[in-house]
Amino acid sequence: MDSKEFRQRGREMVDYIADYFENIEQRRVFPDVQPGYLKELVPSEPPQCPDSWDNIMKDIDKAILPGVTHWQHPHFHAFYPWTQSYPSILADFLVDALSSAGFSWASCPASTELEIAVMDWLANMLGLPEKFHHCRGAGGGVTQNSAGECLIVSMLAARHNALKHLSSIYPNEDAAVLLSKLVIYHSKLAHSCVEKAGMVLLIKTKGLDFDDKHSLRGHTLETAIEDDERKGLYPFFVLATLGTTPVGSFDNIQEIGEVCNRRRIWLHVDAAYAGSSFICPEMRTQMNGIKNVNSLNINLHKWMLMNSESSAIWIDDKKVLIETMAIEPLYLQHHLSENFLSSKKNWSISLCRKFRSLKIWAVIRSYGISGLQRHIRNHCKLAKYFESLMLSDSRFQVIGTVNLGLVCFKLKNNHLTEKLLSTLNSSGKMYLVPAAVNEDFIIRYVICYEKMNERLIEESWNIIRNLASEILNQNYE
Ligand code: PLP
């Protein structure tokens, strides 16, 4: 493709994307295909000769779009949002064209410096303490691919500190023996990425009970720590979640932070979804206790209208992270990159990294803080509206507190709730996923669509209650 054709095809693609968004409501949310459907439509061998862009687009329509789950559909209510916005798409378009791998200052000065600037902007917008700001404290923020990666990075830094401490107490002990003493705690409602991180880093992870508000409390943590210390283990890291995946609940970081602070245990907060809501000052009470937190991650692509992957982590002591991760082979050195505090390769597992800060910058500027606040508040308000509709019907039970854009509910027993979920999903009108909380099978209704409104909420409610009536009637007969 030459630049002349690229200009034409680029314009066509922009129209294609705009048409997709304008007409998305007419599609099924979940595709009507079976596993293996693509085998029939895509040859098993790659082509020897060049194919035309027209043919590629025809096959996108014929083979690819029919197999897409439409995460941007108004009735996609599964998982958590995986957002995008026009400014973000446009900025990423340019990033893909520039294709520069900003791992050090010299590899792309603009990418390195803009990332520092936007991470401080975000820290400001979210009301994070000064210790997390590049320009004010000993810490700072950096983007990563995923919340799971953020967690691994903070666990690596904490593990580095813990092993240093243990080897000063047991200088003759083998590193593998010291590693086997380490233990991490989290609520049973924490995302599974903590167990994955433990598997990767060969560290024991323990899920702790939560209270009746689905919150991990300080006394539960302290009891677990004391038990394990008696067994000769070394608790060194706690993961608290603000906005758990199953029910959107908040661990009590005030209490947990006090326990961690007293015992010099690293406290990491996973606020992958809920973190974006702290842009609204009225939501920040959920962050009480943040001063005792060592690191925190947010997926900006979940709720802040930025395309994936835009995960962000802030850490209160960047030197520890860099001491853990820095490697400086000759081929990566440059006389103007000597301040390796700013070299992003020393902040993450992968060396090369996309110019993610450009879309973050573009979205914040295009929406402004007020536009992003409006977006979050709209989702929270509509979730409350959905909850009120549900509470008006005694056949439904709302589980947990509705603070965010998530409403969890069930029918009178697990069997009926499972039946309702499978009927809703196979109708193609809506897509939702379940969660397990204690003995309950619950359905999570998440507001993901940027332009959600009361009409669409009422439409959801009518679909859900009509299908529930059918199921309950069948069950009665
Ligand atoms: N943490 C929470 C609270 C989540 O809800 C999720 C995903 O939904 C994750 C972590 C995992 O995110 P990622 O896919 O970016 O690793």
Automatic annotation (TrEMBL):
GO cellular component: cytoplasm
UniProt keyword annotations, A-Z: Decarboxylase, Lyase, Pyridoxal phosphate
Lineage: superkingdom: Eukaryota
Keyword Lyase appears in the UniProt entry: yes
Family annotation (InterPro entries): Aromatic_deC (IPR010977), PyrdxlP-dep_de-COase (IPR002129), PyrdxlP-dep_Trfase (IPR015424), PyrdxlP-dep_Trfase_major (IPR015421), PyrdxlP-dep_Trfase_small (IPR015422)
Location of N6-(pyridoxal phosphate)lysine modifications: 302
Cofactor dependence: pyridoxal 5'-phosphate
A GO molecular function held by the record: pyridoxal phosphate binding
Pfam hit, one: Pyridoxal_deC
Family: Belongs to the group II decarboxylase family.
Name of the protein described by the UniProt record: Aromatic-L-amino-acid decarboxylase
Organism for this UniProt entry: Helobdella robusta
